[in-house]
């Protein structure tokens, strides 16, 4: 019977998400990942090269899933409603809290001056999102951008931060706003949407 390589890789990646989100690339254990996947741990090395490469593959896969679930443009090519896009990113993080933890681990164990795995590809993807944010902002404003409006790259960064930061540091959200996302996610989402609507003008 032929070995199903694609399925084995998928099982390992799925098992690695929770392990790395909880313990990071250094604390994560290959044996626990393999056991959770029901796969011999020796399969990890020919498929991924090692634990750090597996971590990098997990981060890339999770970012791709976010991009697929929350596109920056509508199916017909129209610019997305930017405030509502921020709300959908918020919804995604609410349902998938592990993604921000993975990105935090990537930052903690990386060198701020050195590229992360796949950085060139990821940067090109974000450049496309900056362009899409610019188109969406013009649609939101209903006219040409004001001279003093946020540059598109700063606007996109603000959207990403507003939609995700309260999940990354819930203790700050609690101290500043008096509550956490879990207590009233609808109110927190509405606040994010409103802030992005104001920024996008």
Can you offer a commentary on this structure?
Helix content is about 70%, strand content about 0%. It is mostly helical and about 200 residues long. It has two domains: about 1-55, Arc Repressor Mutant, subunit A (Orthogonal Bundle); about 70-200, Orthogonal Bundle (Tetracycline Repressor, domain 2). Helix 5 runs antiparallel to helix 10 and helix 8 packs across helix 9. The model has no long low-confidence stretch (mean pLDDT about 90). InterPro entries: Homeodomain-like_sf, HTH-type_TetR-like_transc_reg, HTH_TetR, Sco4008_C, Tet_transcr_reg_TetR-rel_C_sf.
Helix content: over 70%
Low-confidence stretches: none
Calculate the terminal CA-CA distance, rounded to whole Å: 60 Å
Q: State the fourth-level CATH superfamily of the largest domain.
A: Tetracycline Repressor, domain 2
Shape call: globular
Give the CATH class of the largest domain: Mainly Alpha
CA gyration radius, whole angstroms: 19 Å
Q: Tell me the strand percentage band.
A: under 5%
Kindly report the average pLDDT value. 90
**CATH T-level topology of the largest domain:** Tetracycline Repressor, domain 2
Can you tell me the number of structural domains? 2
- Per CATH, the architecture of the largest domain is Orthogonal Bundle
Largest sheet: none
Q: How many DSSP H or I helices?
A: 10
Structural category is mainly alpha
Q: What's the SSE pattern?
A: HHHHHHHHHH
Q: How many strand segments?
A: 0
InterPro entries: Homeodomain-like_sf (IPR009057), HTH-type_TetR-like_transc_reg (IPR050109), HTH_TetR (IPR001647), Sco4008_C (IPR041467), Tet_transcr_reg_TetR-rel_C_sf (IPR036271)
DNA-binding region: 29-48
Keywords: DNA-binding
GO molecular function, one term: DNA binding
């Amino acid at each position: 019977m032929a070995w199903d390589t694609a399925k084995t890789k998928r099982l390992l990646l799925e098992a690695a998400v929770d392990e790395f989100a909880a313990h990071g690339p250094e604390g994560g254990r290959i044996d626990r990942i393999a056991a959770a996947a029901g796969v011999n741990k020796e399969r990890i090395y020919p498929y991924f090269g090692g634990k750090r490469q597996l971590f990098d593959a997990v981060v890339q896969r999770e970012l791709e899933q976010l991009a697929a679930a929350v596109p920056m443009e509508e199916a017909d090519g129209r610019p997305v409603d930017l405030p509502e896009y921020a709300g959908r990113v918020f919804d995604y993080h609410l349902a998938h809290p592990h993604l921000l933890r993975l990105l935090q681990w990537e930052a903690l164990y990386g060198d701020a001056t050195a590229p992360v795995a796949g950085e060139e590809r990821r940067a090109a993807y974000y450049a496309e999102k900056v362009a899409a944010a610019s188109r969406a902002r013009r649609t939101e404003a209903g006219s040409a951008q004001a001279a003093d409006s946020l540059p598109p790259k700063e606007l996109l960064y603000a959207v990403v931060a507003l939609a995700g930061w309260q999940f990354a540091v819930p203790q700050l959200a609690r101290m500043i706003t008096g509550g956490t996302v879990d207590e009233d996610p609808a109110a927190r989402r509405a606040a994010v949407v409103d802030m992005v609507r104001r920024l996008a003008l």
